Amino acid sequence: MDRPILPPPTKYRPDIDGLRAIAVMLVMNFHAFPEAMPGGFIGVDIFFVISGFLITGIIVRELDQQRFSLVAFYNRRIRRIFPALIVVLGATLVLGWMWMLPGAYAQLSGDVFAGAAFFANIALLLQSGYFDVESAKKPLLHLWSLGIEEQFYLFWPLMLMLIARLRLGILAAVSVVGVASFVLNVMLIDSNPVATFYLPFTRAWELLAGAALACGWNLVNHSSTASNLRATVGLVLIATAAGVLDTKSAFPGWWAVLPVAGAALLLSAPAAWFCRTLLASPPLVWIGLISYPLYLWHWPLLVFFAIIKFGPLTLVERELILGLSVLLAWATYWLVESPIRFGRPSPLKVGGLPRPWC
């Protein structure tokens, strides 16, 4: 196996948490204010790239050092994903019991099981599309992305282990698998757009874009000039996607190249002014740290408050719900997620630890 030069394993990059913040704010604003942010759903694609970059980097580094353990890897994934997820699923069941009719609650119970088992994307594929009107009434619609990510990580470590055992070029292998996934995505987007949206095979290339960056880190020009150029292009691509795309776009398809390439370019440019100054700013880093529970909380709250009101939410109501989501996300991060992952955190420790997320 080739020996890629990866980012230092102990070096925390606050700009990545800042990029997480951008991603989760795009998704939240798309869900709360779809008219103002029609393409905000691309935040999920940004998360996929970040996840592939961080987690593949960890796996390859440990394989290179001959200390990778599947048991340890899955233990880390469980400690990362399950604590906050179980809290939100439990709260969703309670709210559903209080405010849903029996038939809808029975469907919600099935969705809770699918979300906990990480096949929400498959369950939703069998029911309706992500942008359908009926999907907007599903409190756990957003868990499709967790399903794709965790299904990907059931097989990806095994594939990397096989690549290492066969002493193949890891960057070449990652690229081949990623290109195959992308081609499948483009081939199916017109004939079966719902399956293309939900299946891990047609989404894997987004995680693999981040994986390829991690494996080819030594090939990147890290000079200030080159980094600034890449960061600028990456920012333009993401902003273009958020502003141009909407629910009628054939997505992912070719359109997904915009946010995926944009995220990869920003990840590749830690020396860029935008990354060092804006993405690494304390407010964005703070939001990035709670981005996972924030992603989990915001959508069920929007759905249940609409159910309780028996009608559409006003602008102020949606803003207040997003504020409540932030409060619940911070409480979940501080009281549930951090103690289980890292032990009880101190204020001095919170900002200094790398926290891979998807």
Q: Can you describe this structure?
A:
- The protein has 358 residues and is an all-alpha fold.
- The protein has one domain.
- Helices cover 71% and strands 0% of the residues.
- The chain is built from 16 helices and no strands.
- The protein has helices at 14-32, 43-64, 70-99, 102-116, 120-125, 144-165, 170-188, 193-198, 200-215, 224-244, 257-267, 273-279, 282-289, 291-309, 315-342, 347-350.
- Helix 14 packs antiparallel against helix 15 (315-342).
- The two termini are 26 Å apart.
- Mean pLDDT is 90; it is low at 1-5 and 345-358.
Number of strands: 0
Helix content: over 70%
Poorly predicted sequence stretches spanning 5 or more consecutive residues: 1-5, 345-358
Q: Strand fraction band?
A: under 5%
Helical segment count: 16
Structural class: mainly alpha
Query: Looking at the chains present, what oligomeric state does this protein adopt?
Result: single chain
What keywords describe this structure?
single chain, 358 residues, mainly alpha
Could you provide a short overview of the structure?
The protein has 16 helices and no strands. The protein has helices spanning 14-32, 43-64, 70-99, 102-116, 120-125, 144-165, 170-188, 193-198, 200-215, 224-244, 257-267, 273-279, 282-289, 291-309, 315-342, 347-350. Helix 3 (70-99) packs antiparallel against helix 4 (102-116) and helix 10 packs antiparallel against helix 11.
Helix and strand arrangement:
Elements: H1 14-32, H2 43-64, H3 70-99, H4 102-116, H5 120-125, H6 144-165, H7 170-188, H8 193-198, H9 200-215, H10 224-244, H11 257-267, H12 273-279, H13 282-289, H14 291-309, H15 315-342, H16 347-350
Helix pairs in contact: 1-2, 1-12, 1-13, 1-14, 2-6, 2-9, 2-11, 3-4, 3-14, 3-15, 6-9, 7-9, 9-11, 10-11, 14-15
